[in-house]
């Protein structure tokens, strides 16, 4: 690399002599042409030299792992052309800037002397022009109704939210892409039955729009709460505040490069494949993770997507602990099965952060309003682990230098979450901006009708799985792990997604059909503990346990209407659900256990009122208390507020 830098520097120095007499105020086309030609010569020579030296080192086995990685990371095909064009333009501009600077006062910025017209001419001559072309937001049709493919015109504050092109990276990802592709096509089929006059483009766009609504509802209602915890849901992601055109919804560098890569530490070393009984598949056993990368043939020839989706919902995610963060399948054997050189995902994550110029750990702690540890004692307190603090300071010398990804994943979890305070802050802030800055957010006025929003609000991932696979029973909330024997739900008992609001001729048309019946699950005996209560009165007092007075079922008297509390009669795992209506108030509901917040409600606006709902599994000790509390304006609650719970299993 030193030879490469020297070669470019020498070329720049020699070429300066050709521009000594150039007038700085007006660049002639011949001067620009000469600069472009010289820049192309330098870049092509540098590329050729770098690749020749790298290949020679590999051939004579005098290569370090970094040399091999650098060679493998060189762009190819159209990407190589685009990168080289950018280098042409950068060096051509640099040549002109350096020449102009020699003829001006030191305090003048040479870049200001190159006009926009000159820059466009340079871009055209270097082939870099394509990097500056964007679709016209004035001529693109249906912008008020549908998202563009690139999202470029979706918001007045332009964002760059792209899909994942790596659908074959590993078979779990391939299975989920296949699942949602099937659901899109299923929607198209049934929308065509409801609206025979819609053409193919309208059917595609309407189904795509529904899929976008699915993603938003499921992410905010069923996923994020388990990641950032109820406190950050309450502070950042509670009731939808409406669209704000001044909020930038684009993905931040630190989110994409560090914070959202926390999930690498939740990946199990196996890609589980389970049979109809949610047991290890006897014909297609679960491969090690490194043998599941870039192997779509495993789906085609080894049982399809059903065993993989059962494995995703029927086995728990890996628990990130400070003494076992990342599986060796990712740390030592990434892409080993399909590449000659295995990679280390943790090392790549830290190098990626440095490549992107991310500030260090303490800068982001300060950004989030958190303390910034300055020494061993303070870092050990933040991490709640002196041993890890010592190891980090031995490597980085000061907390300021710690890579933000490593510092973030090393923090202990926030209550009820799966990340520490730093990543909970960065993730919650990002999704807050995604929601508030998205003109086509599903809850924004005019995006969907009220009836359509009601259908989306009741979307279930379990139903999507049932409708698009041969799976016959699933957990009602697939994001919450539970053993199959303790109450998986049969597909015929999971409500179908209601498409009737999309029927332009008959808004009360039929719902989409349900999936086929499946075999019954095994029989288990367990303790009978359950309750289902209705509030029974309007506008209760906020800030204290809600007293549900009307019993729908309270056979074991485990819920006390006088105190508003459920008391656990014996230890085990319980499921709790609530659904409340709040009129003309900006309120929310919290599910509490022994004065600790467990779930903050998923709160959405409807015409004239809010709905606040939640669902979770909780491990309780004997005598633990669980109850609901209405926050600030939550005293607008109506009597049609329901709270239920039941015992699942003991460990």
How would you sum up this structure, described in words?
By secondary structure, the protein is an alpha+beta fold. Among the domains are: 2-132, no CATH class; 171-240 and 441-502, no CATH class; 530-649, Sandwich (Jelly Rolls). Helices cover 38% and strands 12% of the residues. Strands 4-3-13-7-11-10 form a six-stranded antiparallel sheet, with helices on one face. It has a five-stranded antiparallel sheet with strand order 5-6-12-8-9. A two-stranded antiparallel ribbon has the order 1-2. A hairpin with a 4-residue loop joins β5 and β6. It is globular, with a radius of gyration of 29 Å. Mean pLDDT is 84; it is low at 16-24, 157-163 and 515-526.
Keywords:
single chain; 651 residues; alpha+beta; Jelly Rolls; 6-stranded antiparallel β-sheet; 5-stranded antiparallel β-sheet; 13 strands; 38% helix; 12% strand
Rounded to an integer in angstroms, the radius of gyration calculated over CA atoms is 29 Å
Alpha-beta classification: alpha+beta
Sheet with the most strands, sense and barrel status: 6 strands, antiparallel
Shape: globular
Low-pLDDT segments? 16-24, 157-163, 515-526
The residue fraction in helices comes out at 25-40%
Number of helices: 19
Strand order of the largest sheet: 4-3-13-7-11-10
Give the mean pLDDT.
84
Give the terminus-to-terminus CA distance: 58 Å
Number of strands: 13
Range of strand content: 5-15%
